[in-house]
Design goal:
The protein is α+β, with helices and mostly antiparallel strands and 254 residues long. 22% of the residues lie in helices and 23% in strands. It is globular and about 55 Å long.
């Protein structure tokens, strides 16, 4: 009986192959499974919004891939800001993948050489034409010791940024780590900076000092734990800042 069942199953499979033909890999959701189907964009290439600027000597367009960067750019875009849109591909000379994860498209009147030079100055990765460079593996880095009682971490999306980030950390007296973020165990607050940078604060004890530290760097402060409640018998908190900040060499990507 088992032999008869196996024979019937084999016959059924043969009929299916002959009747249906070979099937290709169905591929990711949204594709039709054929070899000519366009591949689905990876998550890192999802576009939330664009910021397009046009002037006499410059025409560029940024594609923003997540809500954090979109909110930061929405109020700072000096050109046309549009959600749920992509940068125009017509006339593109080159594309720069920036360290924070945005993708910048460059058009005339700038030349290809000038666009590539600007991308290198931004510590990004450049490709000629209208197709962005292949996404790099995202690397989380941390710098311990740049500020007293603080650790600065950065999410890096373009590999040319890795070496400068390490050099900046060491220049300011810090210890650099690639592949790991800052510890949160003793954190009092987080100072979210522009781009993909965050300072994890384990001091000073004064909330006002932490607020001042973060606002001086144009960041947004998030208290990690509730501040101790004050009482008449408690000694006032000492308003002690971190050590005087050293010159900030972090490159701001425009």
């Amino acid at each position: 009986m088992i032999r008869h069942a196996s024979s019937a199953l084999a016959a059924a499979l043969l009929v299916c192959v002959l009747a249906c033909g070979e099937k290709s890999d169905p591929g990711p959701p949204g594709s039709n499974g054929s070899a000519s189907a366009a591949p689905a964009a990876p998550a890192s290439e999802i576009v939330e919004a664009i910021c397009e600027t046009t002037s006499i000597d410059d025409h560029s367009c940024l594609e923003l891939g997540d809500e954090e960067l979109t909110k930061e750019r929405e109020g700072a875009c000096e050109g046309k800001f549009v959600r749920d849109a992509a940068c125009p591909r017509e006339g593109v000379l080159g594309v720069c993948r920036l360290p924070e994860g945005t993708v910048r498209f460059g058009y005339p009147p700038k030349t290809l050489a000038l666009l590539e030079k600007a991308c290198q100055a931004s510590q990004g990765r450049f490709a000629a034409g209208d197709k962005p460079p292949t996404p790099d593996l995202v690397t989380m880095t941390s710098c311990v010791g740049k500020y007293e009682s603080a650790c600065e971490e950065e999410e890096i999306h373009a590999t040319p940024r890795l070496k400068p980030a390490e050099e900046e950390c060491r220049t300011f007296g810090g210890v650099f780590h690639a592949g790991t973020g800052c510890p949160r165990e003793s954190a009092l607050a987080l100072c979210d900076l522009k781009g993909k940078r965050t300072v994890v604060l384990s001091g000073p004890p004064s909330l006002d000092a932490r607020k001042r530290f973060c606002s001086e760097r144009e960041g947004k402060l998030f208290e990690a734990v509730p501040s101790p409640s004050s009482s008449a018998s408690a000694a006032p908190a000492v308003d002690e800042d971190p050590r005087a900040p050293k010159p900030d060499a972090i490159i701001r990507v425009q």
